[in-house]
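Hi F.,

I've been meaning to write this up properly since the lab meeting, where we talked about keeping a consistent format for the predictions we share between groups. The idea is simple: the sequence comes first, exactly as it goes in, then the C-alpha cells exactly as they come out, then a line or two of notes. No screenshots and no reformatting. I'm using this chain as the first example so we have something concrete to point to.
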Amino acid sequence: MKLVDIVGLRVSFRQHAGVVDAVRGVSLHVEEGESVGIVGESGSGKSVTCMALMRLLGGAADVSADSMVLDGVNVLDANARTMSALRGKSAAMIFQDPMTAFDPVFTIGHQIVETIRTHRRISKAEAREETVRLLERVEIKNARDVLGYYPHQLSGGMLQRAMIAMALSCRPKVLIADEPTTALDVTIQAQILQLIKQLQKEFGMALIMITHDLGVIAETVDRVVVMYGGKVMEEGPVEQIFDNPRHSYTQTLLGSLKAAVVNSPAAEEPQSAAPALELRDLSKIFVLKRRGRIFHTLVDHQAVKGVNLVLPRNKIIGLVGESGSGKTTTGLMAMRLIEPTNGQVLVDDSDISTLDHTSLKGFRRRMQVVFQDSYSALDPMMTLAQIVAEPLNIHGVGTYRKQTEQALDWLERVGLDRNFGQRYPHELSGGQRQRVAIARALILEPTVLVADEPTSALDVTVKAQIIGLLKQLQQQLGLSMLFISHDLSVVRALTDEVVVMYRGRVVEQAPTAAIFARPQHPYTRSLIDAIPVSNPRDRRLRSFLSAADIANATPRLSRSALAADADAAELPQLVAFAPGHLVEAVVTQ
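Output, unedited:
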C-alpha cells in the first residue's frame, strides 16, 4: 500500500522580484516500510516537496498537484483539523535545524509531552514516562535530567536526538528526515543514521531521507530520487543509481563524491618568516550554573586545555573533533571573538591577546571568520548585496557603488547569480545562505581565515566548487586558513595538516596523509572509521567507542620509540611519535 502518493506537484513562491518556481511537476510515491532517499543540491526542491506534503509551507507559496495523498487522505482538500491529526500520527518530520524546530521558551520535556497528549488520550504523568522512555531509546543517558533542559542547553547531537524522540512520540507510519545530520560531527552522524535505521525497523516505519550527502544516501535507503531545478532527474534502486547512473546530473553528483581534490604545491615561505597565526598554551574556562533543589551552584568547565597550534603562511590546517571537543571555541579565541582564560594569540608575530577594541580593528581586516550557522550570522533585514558589502563599508573601502559591484562579483564567485543581490536571507536555502557567508568573509581578501564548518550545509557539487575557490584564493592571496570541520572527506581533500581535538585538548597532529594512513590515537581511528561509505554495497554495522574505551586504548610508547626526548609519566602527554607527527600517549621507560 502506498503511504505517500504525489503526482504532478507544482510549488511556486511569490517574492519581491517575481514568482519563483521551486517544484515543477514532481511525482513521488513511498510504500509501507520502504526507505526512499531524495537527493539533490541546495534549491533543488527536495525539502519543499515534503513540506508541501505536510502542508507546512507559508502563505507566499502556491501549491497545486494532480494528486497528493498521505495515508489515504487527500492533502490538498484536507481541513486544518485533519492535517493536525495526520502530522505526528501518519507522518512526522525531523527538521534540518532542531534549534529552530524547538520552542526556546519551553523545556524539552514539556514540548514532547505536549506532542504526545495532542495525539493520544493519556495523562500527563503517563506522557512524561513515555517521554523518558523515548529519550532513553534515542540513547540520551540522563533522560530525566534532559526533561528539564531548554533547547539551548543541549549540544547539536543531543538536540537532534531529542528531535527524533519527539518525531517518534506518536509512532508515525512515515518518518521524514530533512538533512538530519548536516551540522553533526562524523561520529555523531554515524550514530544518528544507525539509530534512525534501527528505529525504522523496530517501529515498521517508512522513511524519506532528504539530503545532499550521497554518503548518507549510501548508508540508509533502498531507493533514490534525484532532483534538480525542481524536477525529478532520475529514480531507481540505490545500487543501480550508484553503479550505473543514467542521467548526466546524477553522474556529476557521483563524480563530485568520488573525485579527489589535488592539492597544488603552495609556494614555500622562508623558514625565518613568522607564522600567519600562532596559539600558545590557549585555554578557556566557562563558569556554568548547576541546578540544585533550592540554589544554583557555579562550576568551572574547561572547554579548551593548553592548545598549542602554528598556522604557517599559505597553508591550511584542519581542526577536527566531535561536538563539544573545543574546536569552535579554539577558533573563536583565535579571532578574539571569545576571550581566552589563559594563553596568547599571535598574528604575524604580534600578540593580539591584550589589545583593546580600537587597536584590534586594524587586525580585523586581515582576520575573518565563516560561522557554522549561516542563518543566525546573516542580518535578516539586509539584502544579500548589503550583507556581502558590509565589511567594505565598515573598513571604508571604496564608494557605495563600487562596494555593491564588488559584492555582486563575489556572489558570482561563490556560485550565485547577480540577481540574488536583491534577495533576503530567508528567501534562500541553507546551502545558498552558507555561500553568502563565505562571500562576506572573503570580500576583504584576508590573510588569515577561520572557517567553522563552511561546507557543512553545501551539496557535493557546490562543496567541490568552494574547495576549489578556497585553494585558488590560497594561491592568489597567500591565504592561511584554520579549517574547522566534521567532514573528514573535505579535510582530507583540502588541508595540509590535521589537528585532532578531544575533550578540549589536542590528541594528535600530523600531515594530512599521515593522519589518514597511520592514525595512532584511538579517537582519531574512531573518527576515520565513522566516515560514511561511498557505495551502498559497503554498508556495515558500526560500533562506537565510549570515553572509557578511548582512555583504556591510549597509546603507551617507550622513550626509545619517540622522535624526540620526553619524560616518562603515568598521565598522557603530547609527544613526537615521528617527525611532524604528535600524539597523546603515556610514555614509558
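Notes:
Residues 259-272 have pLDDT under 50 and may be disordered.
The CA atoms of residues 383 and 422 lie 5 Å apart.

If this format works for you, I'll send the rest the same way.

G.
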